[in-house]
Design a protein that fits this description.
about 280 residues, about 0% strand, globular, RteC protein
Length: about 280
């Protein structure tokens, strides 16, 4: 099942990329991609209902990791379509609307603080309650009824996880748009360093730094780290979240760049011709 789902997700990403290249304007792009995601979700649903799951572990993995990736795309592009249709084209009203939407996203994270923290920390203790279809309700996590929710293809946690993923992506998009308006051109021009390795390598580094909590004692978002490295190294990290999803489903080596850094550094240390500053003589 996992291989099929990864292939289907890769195909979806490919279709989305084609739409972005073909359609002009965010409104048309987001609307077309949203429609495409809906089709793929129906295909995924039919597959799951026909094949079923081999055990509870596979079911938990599907509703915790696999389905939310697809549903997050649906939520994100739905929100982007709404935003593109609503926001003024120019003027202060544009910035104000972006900020209102950003406040809404932050309020959602705050309202679901417990589950969002569980999601961000990668916890597993409540997985049987959150990601099995036949599990009972969790008293401190309200399960508000959803319109057209099919209990055969949804769990208490799956939609929330999808929304967390989508809203993190939306948060990044809104922050970038606000920054473009307030500081056109950015401050990257003053940096002497330009990232010349692939974008995927820098995204891998962003998440590694976040996972290691090396900034502000861990009290910093992935978006903050991405924006900082983006400015420092003059590299566009737009939609870094989607790139990270591709890293997660690699068939071989999910940390290729980080593993390579370790190898290069060890070779560098073994070089007997280094001077006292660690530089080649």
């Amino acid at each position: 099942m996992k291989e099929y789902c990864n292939q289907l997700y890769g195909e979806l990403k490919g279709r989305a990329q084609q739409i972005q290249q073909r359609a002009s304007g965010m409104l048309k792009q987001s609307g077309a991609i949203y429609t495409e995601v809906n089709k793929v979700l129906l295909e995924l649903k039919e597959y799951v209902l026909e094949k079923g799951f081999s055990d509870e572990g596979e079911e938990i993995e599907f509703f915790k990791q696999i389905k939310p990736r697809f549903e997050a795309e649906q939520i994100y592009y739905g929100e982007l379509y709404y935003l593109s249709a609503k926001v003024p084209r120019t003027g202060e009203g544009r910035t104000d609307e972006y900020r209102r939407q950003l406040d809404f996203v932050h309020a959602y994270f705050s309202r679901h603080h417990f589950l969002y923290t569980y999601y961000r920390l990668g916890e597993t203790s409540l997985d049987r309650h959150l990601f099995l279809r036949k599990s009972g309700p969790v008293p401190f996590i309200p399960d508000r009824p959803m319109v057209n929710r099919d209990a055969r293809f949804a769990t208490l946690g799956s939609y929330r996880y999808a929304k967390f993923m989508a809203y993190e992506h939306l948060q990044d998009h809104l922050s970038r748009e606000i920054k473009k308006i307030l500081a056109p051109g950015g401050s990257a021009q003053s940096s002497k360093l330009k990232w010349t390795a692939p974008k995927v390598a820098l995204v891998e580094l962003v998440y590694a730094l976040k996972a290691a909590n090396v900034f502000n004692h861990g009290k910093v978002s992935i978006s903050d780290i991405a924006q900082c490295l983006e400015e420092t190294f003059q590299k566009d990290l737009a939609q870094y979240y989607r790139t990270f999803q591709e890293i997660r489903i690699r068939k071989t080596g999910r940390t290729n760049f980080i593993d390579g850094l370790k190898e290069y550094l060890e070779k560098w240390m073994d070089n007997t011709d280094l001077n006292g500053k660690g530089e080649e003589g």
